[in-house]
Design a protein that fits this description.
Helix content: 25-40%
Structural class: alpha+beta
Number of helices: 2
Order of helices and strands: EHEEHE
Shape: globular
Strand order of the largest sheet: 2-3-1-4
Number of strands: 4
């Protein structure tokens, strides 16, 4: 299923900047960045539970926020892109 993850991490302190880097890295482990604080991730239910748990452990809930948009399996007709930064097919073949 496609899950859109967005986050807002307070960066007024060194600890906040460190949390921001950790949250971005964790999201990058599971999907692709499509905007500065927005990731598209193709996950199964177990991966989603794991990712949510790991992200919740990284943030400070009194200063930061996470949002998870579950677009499901038929997500391709729910996403429209306009402008630069074309994304790649996350389920397509990866050629290195």
């Amino acid at each position: 299923m496609m899950v859109l993850i967005t986050y807002d991490v307070a960066t007024t302190s060194a600890a906040g900047r460190k949390r921001l880097r950790k949250v971005a890295k964790k999201c990058q482990d599971f999907g692709q960045r499509v905007q500065n604080s927005v990731f598209e991730c193709v996950l199964d239910a177990t991966q989603l539970v794991q990712l949510k748990k790991e992200l919740k452990e990284l943030i400070d809930e009194s200063e930061d926020s996470l949002r998870f948009y579950i677009l499901g399996n038929s997500y391709k007709n729910k996403i429209e892109h306009v402008g630069t930064k074309k994304s790649f097919d996350v389920e397509g073949p990866l050629i290195l």
